[in-house]
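Exercise 7.
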Amino acid sequence: MLIVALAACGGSTSGGAGKATGRAEPDLPGTAPQSTAPQSTSAGTAGSADGPALHAGTMDGILTAPDGRRRTYLVHVPPSAVSAPSAVSAAATAVGPGLPVVVVLHGGGGSGRQVEQQTGMSAVADRAGFLAVYPDGTGRRETALLTWNAGTCCGYAHANGVDDVGFIAALLDRLPRDYPVDPTRIYVTGMSNGAMLSYRLACELAGRIAAIAPVSGALNTTSCTPSRPVPIIAFHGTADDKVRYDGGESSIGLRQGDERADRSVAEAMAFWTHRDGCPATPVRSRQGAVVHDVYGPCAPGGAVELYSVTGAGHAWPGGSRPREQADPPPPAPNAAAVMWQFFTHHTLAG
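Solution. The predicted structure, written as tokens, is:
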């Protein structure tokens, strides 16, 4: 799988959620934009306090990022947000008045629609009652080979200095206008280049993101000065040759110019255990090919865990292949379900 990194965007936002179509396609860049507000619906739908009513299912959205780029994304609304609009759901109201949000960043060359299918996150969202959000990166062709600017990688987004951090910040500003969102429970995960961007977002938007869960990605930021400890749970196959477990050059060619080799998983764990006030040596357990390291106890607000899958390649554990030639995903752990359980223990409020 191509490696993708998340980039940042800046400026004012416009646009919003599109109509629910089950698996709606985002409007193609370059076409005349249609109305970007959800269609009015009858009883049995829910929206934010001031926003439009919503359907359950996957909806398309558009916003103008701070750098003026037209950016697209998908939002999956769980049935509980429709069936119990006043209370949202028992799961959603246990901590705050709105729904938790899990932002899922695709890998290099992918898309929001592709990573929704790859990760199975929408199914977890339906069971647990949270919004699953799937932003699209940028590319030379605008709708294909999309990447993220994650610091020192990758592809079009990095080469063109795309402000993906700004884009995600603008998206986090947009979501509460259209959905019942709990701002203390915003989580970010990503695959490959998207995992790299999740690391960067933890560095630069720590005040807005409660926890992250990188999958098969490296901490490829040029600097990282988070404003607070950020809980992190990471997943990585030991036989990954696209983003190598031990660091180094990738087997694929998305790097250009002065981009350097990926950092190792150990370097990422060393950074975050130090930042989160955790012990350097983990408590380790093993079940078959899955090695689970828990670094703890940590300082208040901190938490670091790592799932290493022996012999696994560049894949989302428990997910599906994005294409026939991609590395097969290991059956365990179910990364989407495991990370959600981790997320439920962490909020910005404490």
